[in-house]
Design brief:
Layout lengths: L35 H13 L23 E3 L14 H5 L5 E7 L11 E9 L8 H5 L5 E3 L14 E3 H4 L21 H4 L9 H12 L6
This protein binds iron/sulfur cluster (2 copies).
The site of one iron/sulfur cluster has 13 residues, from helix 3.
Length: 219
Amino acid sequence: MSERDGRGAVSPRANGAVERPRRGDVPAKRASRLPAPGQGFGVTFAQIFRKVTTEEYPEVPKVTKPRYHGRHVLNRHPDGLEKCVGCELCAWACPADAIYVEGGDNTAEERYSPGERYGRIYQINYLRCIFCGLCIEACPTRSLTMSNDFELADDNRQDLIYTKEQLMAPLLPGMEAPPHPMRLGDDERDYYVRTPDTAQPTDALGVAGRAAARPVEQA
Ligand code: SF4
Ligand code: SF4
């Protein structure tokens, strides 16, 4: 049932609006026998016994949920070659137009990824990114994943456009910096088609890459 005022109009409160005090309104009194200062200090006193919620960040780093959407990482294969094949699907999937990709051709002398193409230029604009994760869903090679790193603030716009060099996962032990030939087989399918005999710990690599990406200093 709607609330109506004396003139028959629907009251703002009936529509869910907050009713503002009018000039001349008498402030409502709390039903307490304590004097006003006692009521006020009572609130302070009660707070002393409540659980402290102060976060001591940045001295104590904030631990995020495991699936937190933080800074992106471009992952590598176990031999160090890049997983990105420069297909631009992540850029097309991005609703904020935050990703810029330009592919390049691998050659026999200069190979950065298995197969024909690699991501020659890769940029993510963190002034636009809304961390929705659609880009990592679109990536066909699981090159692009998101880390738990949320410290992305800066004092100028240019430094918030991250380049490929900043986004690449660091080289883990046993990896070799590209360009170099394919070490896991002669065919790019050796990197993607797996049998129980040729299984590669790519998921473990992804997790390791995420963990290792955290301490990387941003230029
Ligand atoms: S997380 Fe969302 S907004 Fe950010 S780059 Fe990926 S698709 Fe674009
Ligand atoms: S990150 Fe993935 S989706 Fe984006 S260009 Fe590279 S391979 Fe394609």
